[in-house]
């Protein structure tokens, strides 16, 4: 499985960005895809994930500001990020998990920088 993420960039506080992650080579019928982020000096944290059935889960810090969605036809997961704040600055990584995390795949990171 390969995950290709894109969509990061530099934005002012209050702005928006949309991240995309395209999965190729996956044959899992049941899976969870998500976005994690890692800021300098901090641990990697889950931002949001979505199951193959469409159930979404969000970190408290992004609830109400970020929306995760997926397009099954395009094997793509999106993260719409609104009302961005400087504390959202991090490398965002796409992830796919299957079989109760027996299989875990990571994409390359995409940098999100929010200026104050």
Helix content: under 10%
* Termini separation: 37 Å
What is the number of E strands?
10
Stretches with pLDDT under 50, minimum 5 residues: none
Secondary-structure-based class equals: mainly beta
Strand composition percent: over 45%
The biggest beta sheet reads:
6 strands, mixed
Return the string of H and E elements: EEEEEEEEEE
- Summed over residues and divided by their number, the pLDDT gives a mean of 95
Radius of gyration: 13 Å
Q: Strand order, biggest sheet?
A: 2-10-9-4-5-6
- Shape assignment: globular
The total of helices stands at 0
What's the topology here?
Blueprint: E1 2-6, E2 9-12, E3 17-24, E4 32-38, E5 45-51, E6 56-58, E7 66-71, E8 76-81, E9 90-98, E10 103-115
Parallel strand pairs: 2-10
Antiparallel strand pairs: 1-3, 3-8, 4-5, 4-9, 5-6, 7-8, 9-10
Give a brief description.
Helices cover 0% and strands 59% of the residues. The protein has strands at 2-6, 9-12, 17-24, 32-38, 45-51, 56-58, 66-71, 76-81, 90-98, 103-115. The strands form 2 sheets. A 6-stranded mixed beta sheet has the order 2-10-9-4-5-6, with no helix packed on it. A 4-stranded antiparallel beta sheet has the order 1-3-8-7, with no helix packed on it.
């Amino acid at each position: 499985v390969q995950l290709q993420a894109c969509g990061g960039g530099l934005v002012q506080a209050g702005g928006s960005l949309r991240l995309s992650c395209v999965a190729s080579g996956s044959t899992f019928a049941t899976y969870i895809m998500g976005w994690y982020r890692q800021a300098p000096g901090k641990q990697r944290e889950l931002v949001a994930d979505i199951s193959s059935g469409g159930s979404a889960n969000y970190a408290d810090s992004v609830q109400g500001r970020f929306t995760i969605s997926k397009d099954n036809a395009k094997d793509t997961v999106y993260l719409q990020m609104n009302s961005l704040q400087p504390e959202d600055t991090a490398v965002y990584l796409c992830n796919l998990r299957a079989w109760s995390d027996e299989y875990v795949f990571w994409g390359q990171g995409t940098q999100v920088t929010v200026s104050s």
